[in-house]
Design goal:
The complex is a heterodimer.
Chain A (H helix, E strand, L loop, with lengths): L2 H22 L7 H4 L5 H32 L11 H14 L6 H21 L7 H25 L2 H12 L7 H20 L1 H7 L3 H6 L4 H23 L5 H13 L3 H25 L8 H23 L1
Helix pairs in contact in A: 1-13, 3-8, 3-11, 3-12, 3-13, 4-5, 4-6, 4-7, 4-11, 5-6, 5-11, 8-11, 12-13, 12-14, 13-14
Chain B lengths: L2 E10 L7 E9 L3 E5 L6 H8 L7 E6 L2 E2 L5 H5 L2 E4 L11 H7 L13 H13 L15 H14 L4 E5 L7 H18 L2 E5 L3 H7 L2 E6 L2 E6 L1 H4 L2 H8 L3 E5 L6 E5 L2 H7 L1
Helix pairs in contact in B: 3-5, 4-5
Classes of the chains: A mainly alpha, B alpha/beta.
């Protein structure tokens, strides 16, 4: 077995371990063997749904982050950079203010994500080309504008709506609708597979756009496809789980330091690593201050930042 | 001689600005052609137009008799490779991974590299004397090593035509000679056609069989180094005083610049 296959297998085992850990832990710890008893059926069902969402969100956000870091050739790129999440956030906040909730809330958020994607893309477009610098700038500008509107809406809204908004903006893996989970799962799966098919193109693009053209890659077309796919994935994930920060930024870097930059290996690694990371963070968020649940965004930042700092220092040492 | 690449009334630039006007010339198979000219004369733009990075504003470029923009991009890239001035890679790809990327035009999207692709990459590495760099990260190499790795990637494309845009401008004379010697060897032994943009007139004189001197987006002269590198041509294009002598070793033209102080002293 090659070193890379071993590393992927290792990551897979870590994911299995985190799932087993996460499913047993909770407000009540139940050993794995007893979890499948009739009496615990409900708990098993709830925790499985939640872990499934953690896997989808973790894998999806990490793959989007990896892809955007390659096409934008920017180490700070992450799924939220291009404004999709702020669009989703505005959609959700508006929905909460208008008293729309339950199953319609994710749809409002997704609509917001799509709208911001269209705005960002058209702002960046210059003739038939979409230069990555303009894409980053228009993404950041749209995100700032939308965040301004979000904060404005929060400041004028009634107290009872506030809690719901804050909770949504910080991210949560609570599953309200199992059906929605399957729709999001379908979108994430489709996105991950499409991006994996383009992993060779991603390798070439990470050398530079002109370099990729010299290797026969229709760069503008590939960029468009990847931008739309990552925006759809991010929009879908954010609309059910809120804005879970840091995963899409840190996991790609972490995996690159483990398996290297070749996307044929990096993308599967990001999938597994992202899923495991989020399952673990979610377990912590549910169990650390029982019965209070800490927003998962807080945990990802608090766990992620130190790991990121260690990585950064290690890289400086190598140089 | 069989014509490989041809430009006809080619004009091009960026946005509405036109940098090159009415460029027409013919490159035969196996030629070693240097493109020279002052900053802003359109050398890199010409290379971009010929390698499909930039679409022409008018006129056309044909390769093996076909308009390059009518060819499928990957078909074109199976035969034509490009080496830029310097390649800065953010990610730590190994040299072998970089060289294998040269096989991308030959591979289908979901196709993995075969033994043959690895063998071709291996050969490209040995041609550029960089086999020992194989497992090193591209971001850990010196400028000279990096340039050899990038040339190896271009060779792994198995091109019949190789474009190079000032590939030696960041290198010392030792590495410059090494790269240029390698190109000449490839040109002589495998009849690889080479079109290279160079700043250094003496390097161009020493290695190229033919030179095109650009001035303000037009061809000023086109011919052998002896015909192109005369002091009259250079002085009128570069607006500086030079003396051209014969290199006593290769008997090619050798351009010497003259400082202002010397000019005043000699009147």
């Amino acid at each position: 077995m090659s070193t890379n296959s071993k590393k992927i297998l290792f990551l897979f085992l870590i994911l299995i371990a985190s799932i087993s850990f996460g499913i047993c832990k909770g407000s009540a710890d139940i050993p794995l063997a007893r979890l499948f008893l009739q009496a615990n059926r409900q708990i098993l069902y709830l925790r499985s749904a939640r872990i499934l969402l953690a896997i989808l969100a973790g894998a999806g956000l990490s793959v989007c982050g990896t892809t955007l870091q390659a096409i934008l050739r920017n180490p700070l790129a992450e799924p939220y950079l291009l404004g999709t999440s702020s669009g989703a956030g505005l959609g959700a906040v508006l929905a909460i203010i208008l008293g729309i909730s339950g199953i319609y809330l994710p749809f409002a958020a997704f609509a917001g994500a799509l709208l911001s994607m269209v705005i960002v893309y058209n702002l960046a477009k210059d003739n038939k080309k979409v230069p990555v610098q303009s894409l980053i700038l228009s993404g950041v500008i749209v995100a700032i504008a939308l965040s301004g509107i979000i904060v404005f809406l929060i400041s004028i809204s009634a107290d009872e709506a506030l809690h719901g908004m804050m909770w949504w903006l910080l991210g949560s893996l609570q599953v309200y609708q199992l059906n929605l989970l399957f729709i999001v799962g379908g979108i994430v799966l489709f996105g991950v597979i499409s991006i994996a098919v383009l992993s060779q193109d991603l390798n070439a693009i990470s050398l530079g756009e002109e370099e990729a053209v010299h290797l026969g890659i229709d760069i503008e077309k590939i960029k468009k496809i990847l931008f739309v796919i990552t925006a759809l994935m991010t929009g879908a994930i954010v609309s059910v789980s809120g804005m879970i920060g840091f995963v899409g930024l840190i996991i790609p870097h972490m995996m690159r330091s483990i398996v290297g930059p070749n996307h044929k290996v990096l993308l599967p690694a990001a999938c597994l690593g992202g899923a495991a990371f989020l399952v673990l963070c979610d377990t912590i968020s549910r169990t650390i201050f029982v019965p209070v649940e800490i927003p998962i965004g807080v945990i990802t930042s608090l766990v992620g930042a130190p790991i990121f700092m260690v990585l950064l220092k290690r890289r400086q040492k190598i140089r | 001689m069989e014509s490989l690449l041809k430009t006809k009334d080619l004009s091009g630039g960026y946005g509405k600005e036109t940098i090159l006007r009415d460029i027409s010339f013919d490159v035969a198979k196996g030629e070693f052609l240097g493109i020279i000219g002052p900053n802003g004369s359109g050398k890199s733009t010409l290379l971009r137009l010929m390698s499909r990075v930039l679409s022409p504003q008018s006129g056309e470029v044909s390769f093996e008799g076909k308009d390059i923009f009518r060819m499928k991009l990957d078909q074109f890239c199976k035969k034509v490779a490009f080496v830029p001035q310097d390649t800065l890679v953010n990610f730590s790809f190994s040299v072998q991974e970089i060289v294998l990327m040269g096989r991308i035009p030959h591979l289908g999207r979901l196709q993995l590299e075969t033994k043959r692709d690895f063998a071709i990459a291996e050969k490209a590495l040995s041609l550029t004397d960089s086999t020992y760099l194989k497992d090193k990260g591209i971001d850990q190499l010196s400028a000279g090593e990096r340039q050899r790795a990038v040339i190896a990637k271009a060779l792994a494309q198995e091109p019949v035509l190789l474009f190079l845009d000032e590939p030696t401008s960041h290198l010392d004379i030792g590495h410059q000679t090494q790269i240029m010697d390698l190109l000449r060897k490839l040109n002589r032994e495998t009849s690889l056609t080479i079109i290279i943009v160079l700043h250094d007139l003496n390097l161009a004189s020493e290695y190229c069989d033919r030179l095109i001197l650009l001035d303000q987006g037009k061809i000023f002269t086109d011919g052998t180094p002896e015909a192109v590198l005369t002091y009259q041509n250079i002085e009128s294009v570069y607006k500086t005083v030079v003396v051209v002598k014969k290199n006593s070793i290769s008997s090619r033209p050798y351009v010497m610049l003259v400082s202002e102080e010397e000019r005043c002293r000699r009147g």
